[in-house]
Amino acid sequence: GAGVSQTPSNKVTEKGKYVELRCDPISGHTALYWYRQSLGQGPEFLIYFQGTGAADDSGLPNDRFFAVRPEGSVSTLKIQRTERGDSAVYLCASSLQGVGEQYFGPGTRLTVT
Amino acid sequence: KQEVTQIPAALSVPEGENLVLNCSFTDSAIYNLQWFRQDPGKGLTSLLLIQSSQREQTSGRLNASLDKSSGRSTLYIAASQPGDSATYLCAAYDSSYKLIFGSGTRLLVRP
Questions:
Q1: Taking 70 as the threshold, does the pLDDT of residue A1 lie above it?
Q2: Is the dihedral of CA A58, A60, A62, A67 positive or negative?
Q3: Chain A contact present for B76, CB below 8 A
Q4: What is the 8-class DSSP label of residue A16?
Q5: Lower CB count within 10 Å: N or C terminus of chain A?
Q6: Of chain B residues 2-61, which have a CB less than 8 A from chain A?
Q7: Closest listed residue to residue B74, CA positions, set B63, B85, B87
Q8: DSSP assigned state of B92
């Protein structure tokens, strides 16, 4: 079956602009996670959804970052007033429930110029 | 707060060597532990998942062990090949089910 997909694969934007990154999880997976990976580092947790609700958003760095999952499937990570420090690879993962192996998408590479 | 550390940060070995990558974590109350491979500019490929009740998992030339009491996991790669060159990431599932990653070990296997 299809794995986790993320669009776009690459996004270049200017400082101050708004961006949306999309994640389409494995069908039937109720849990969805967003992570951010900076160059040379391991991924860092941003937010976890169980169904439609954000069960843990403790990793969001500030209020410029927001994520939604309105129907419990596709999720969108939204970044307002982008800064050069937001440049990173944004990874999405899903799991069958909150417990269990997470399956990762290919990531979106965001570059803020 | 769970912290995951990987040693060494980088490793270069000749082809054919057996090698061990180390991962340590500060909180023994982990749920599962997973090893990933990441090629340059690519996403994460899952290698092995060790559940908290298990001590090790094996897949082909790879063997991963987990010792919760000492806060350590190791990834053993037998008969290394140039195609094994990549960054290897260790990640612990904490009690809230999110993954806590180490910074990775960059492996180069020289022909």
A1: no
A2: negative
A3: no
A4: T
A5: N
A6: 4, 31-32, 34, 36, 41-44, 46, 49
A7: B63
A8: E
How far apart, in whole angstroms, are the C-alpha atoms of residue A60 and residue A5? Answer: 21
- The 10 Å CB-count burial string (b at 16+, else e) for A32-68 is bbbbbbeeeebbbbbbbbbeeebbbeebbeeeebebe
Residue contact B43–A105, C-beta within 8 A? yes
Q: Are residues B2 and B27 in contact, defined by beta-carbon separation less than 8 angstroms?
A: yes
* Helices H / strands E in chain B, number of each: 0, 11
Closest CA to A26 of A97, A85, A82, A84: A97
User: What pLDDT sits at residue B95?
Assistant: 76
Nearest CA in chain B to A4: B43
Query: Structure tokens of A27?
Result: 């069908």
Q: Which of A34-43, A66-75, B27-36, B57-66 shows the lowest per-residue confidence on average (mean pLDDT)?
A: B27-36
C-beta separation of A107 from A87 below 8 A: no
* pLDDT bracket for residue B52 (50, 70, 90): confident
Q: How far apart are CA A42 and CA A37, in angstroms?
A: 6
> Cα dihedral angle (B54, B58, B62, B65), rounded to 10 degrees?
20
